[in-house]
Amino acid sequence: MLARRASAFARSFATVVDNAGVKVAAIDNGQPTTAVTFLVKAGSRYEPKPGVAHTLKNFAFKSTGKRSALGTVRESELYGGVLSASLSREYLALTSEFLRGDESFFVDLMSSFLTSSKFQRHEFQEYVLPVVEAESTAASQNPATRALELAHSLAFRSGLGSSLFASPHSHVSLDDVKEFAARAFSKGNIAVLGTGIDSAALTQLVEKALGGASVGNVAVESKPSTYFGGETRLESHGGPETVFIGFGAAGPADPALAILSAHLSPQPSVKWSQGLSPISAAIPQGTSVQPVLMPYSDATLFGLLVQGSSPEGVKEAAKVATNALKESTGLNGDALKTAVAKAKFAAASSLDGRDGILGALSTKVFANSDASIEATLASIDKVDAAAFSKSVAAITKSKPTFVAIGSVQTLPFTDELGL
Amino acid sequence: MNVLGPSLAPYIRSSRTLKKYVTPVAHWYADLMGYRKMGLKYDDLQVEENPQVQRALGRLTPRETYERSYRFKIASNCDLHHKPLPKEQWSKPEDDKRYLQPHILNIIKEEEERFTWDAMTVQRK
C-alpha cells in the first residue's frame, strides 16, 4: 500500500497522510511525552440503537486477543502511560499519553481493541454496564449537560440528535455492541492523530498494527443532518435553573458563528473586569450566560446557556441574552473588529494544549481539508460586516431550540423572550 | 491441584492409541456413575464450595443457571423417593456437555495472570 502524502501547506502544523484508508496526522513540537489518539467514526450519531455508542466507548481497554483487561492496565502502568476513551457525537476517541520511546506498545494496544476485542459477557456485565449506568446518572443530574442533550435531540432528532449517554430505558445487549463495533471499525472510518511524535514514525507503526489485521470494509452510513428546532421544559430541582436558547443550520461550519460567539461571550479578557460583552453588563447577579457553539461536519448548533440560582433571575438574563443576540446582526466597525480578533485568538490559542490540537485536527482529518491554522484564521478574517449580518440573520430566522430545566412554572416560554 | 481435581485426560488425549482404547471405557464409566439417571450433567457434580467455581457460576447465562437449578430440584426429588427417574427422563449422553469447565479454566488462568503481575520484578532495559 502506497502512502500518498497530502500536498504540503505553507506553515502547516500537521500533514494528513492517507495510509491504505487510515488517515494519519501528527505534529511534533519536541514535547517529552507523546499522545496518540485513534479516532473512529463511531460517535453517537452512527449508533443503530440508543446507548450503543456509549457502551462501546466503555468497552475500550478490556480483553482483546493480545492481552487481558488486567494485563492492559498493569502493563501500561509499568510504562507510566495514561489511557482514556471519550465519545463525541461524531467520533470515538481512544487516547494514550506516554513517554517518548514507548509508542510501539501503545499503538499496538489501541489497535488491538479495534481489531481483536473479545467483548466478553462477564466483562460486559461486571465492568461495562455499571460504568455506563454511573455516567448516565451523573449526566442526568447535571442540568447543563441535560439541556444540551435535549437541545440536540430537538434540533436534529435522529443522527446528531442521539444522546451521548445511554438511558435507563434503552436496553443495550452485548450483541448490539458487537455488531456496531464490527461495522464501525473499518479502515475508512479510522484516523490516527499524534502529538509529540513524528508523522513518518506514526504512519509506520499504524501500518504494522492495522495492516494485516481483519479490519472490515463496510462504511458506516448516516443520513445528512437536517435542523428542526423545538421547545421543551423539564421539571427539576437541586441544581441551577437552566435555560438554553439555540439556533441551528445544516451545512458546513460558518466562521461568522465563531465571531458571534466571541462577541457575545461574557468571558472578560482582563481578570476581574466586566468585559465588553453586551450581555455581561445587563444580566442580574447570580446568573451566568455562556455561548455554546457546536459545529459538526454537516450541521451546527449555536446557542446561549443561561443558568442561575433563581428562575426570575434566569428569565431576566434570558431576555437580555436574546436581545443581545438579535441586536448583533447590526455589528460593524470597531465592535466587529474586536469580535473578529477575539475569535481568531480563541482559535489559535486552543492549539496551545493537546486537547485543542486533537480537537482541531479531528474536525479536519476526515474531511481531508487544509490542516493548518492559517486557513482557519483566514476564513475568520474574511468575514466582513455584511457577511456577518447575513449569517446571523439567517441563523436567527430558523426555528429556535428552547430548553428550560428547573422550576418550569416560573421559567420563561419562547414567546415571553420574543423568539 | 485445582478445583477440577486431578485428571489423566490431557495425557490420554495426546496419544492416539490410548485415546482410541480408553474413550469407550470412559463413556461406560460415566454411564455407570448413575448421575444421568437423576437427570443431571457431569458439571452438576462439580464441587462448588470454593471461590473459583463461585465466580464461574456467575458467568453462566441466565438460561444455563435456571436449567441447572431445575436439574437440582429434579435430582433432590429423586433422592426423596430413593428411586431414579423413568428411562425417558434420563439425561442424554450427547447433551451431557461440560458447561462449567471452560469458565473454571479461564478463571484459573486469570488468577494465575494476576498473581504473575503482582509478583513481577521489573527492570528497565
Automatic annotation (TrEMBL), chain A:
Keyword Transmembrane attached: no
Pfam families: Peptidase_M16
Bilayer disposition of the protein: Peripheral membrane protein
SUPFAM superfamilies hit by this protein: LuxS/MPP-like metallohydrolase
Keyword field: Electron transport, Membrane, Mitochondrion, Mitochondrion inner membrane, Respiratory chain, Transit peptide, Transport
Family annotation (InterPro entries): Metalloenz_LuxS/M16, MPP/UQCRC_Complex, Pept_M16_N
A single GO cellular-component term on record: mitochondrial inner membrane
GO molecular function: metal ion binding
Ranges for domain Peptidase M16 N-terminal: 24-165
Subcellular location: Mitochondrion inner membrane
Protein family according to the UniProt entry: Belongs to the peptidase M16 family. UQCRC2/QCR2 subfamily.
Protein name: Cytochrome b-c1 complex subunit 2, mitochondrial
TrEMBL record, chain B:
Keyword Membrane annotated: yes
Provenance organism: Suillus discolor
InterPro entries for the chain: QCR7, QCR7_sf
PANTHER family: CYTOCHROME B-C1 COMPLEX SUBUNIT 7, UBIQUINOL-CYTOCHROME C REDUCTASE COMPLEX 14 KD PROTEIN
Function according to Swiss-Prot or TrEMBL: Component of the ubiquinol-cytochrome c oxidoreductase, a multisubunit transmembrane complex that is part of the mitochondrial electron transport chain which drives oxidative phosphorylation.
Gene3D superfamilies found in the cross-reference section: Cytochrome b-c1 complex subunit 7
Name used for this protein in its record: Cytochrome b-c1 complex subunit 7
Membrane topology according to the record: Peripheral membrane protein
Domain of life of the source: Eukaryota
Gene Ontology terms: biological process: mitochondrial electron transport, ubiquinol to cytochrome c
Keywords on record: Electron transport, Membrane, Mitochondrion, Mitochondrion inner membrane, Respiratory chain, Transport
Pfam families linked: UCR_14kD
Cellular component terms per the entry's GO annotation: mitochondrial inner membrane; respiratory chain complex III
Localization terms from the record: Mitochondrion inner membrane
Protein family (similarity comment): Belongs to the UQCRB/QCR7 family.
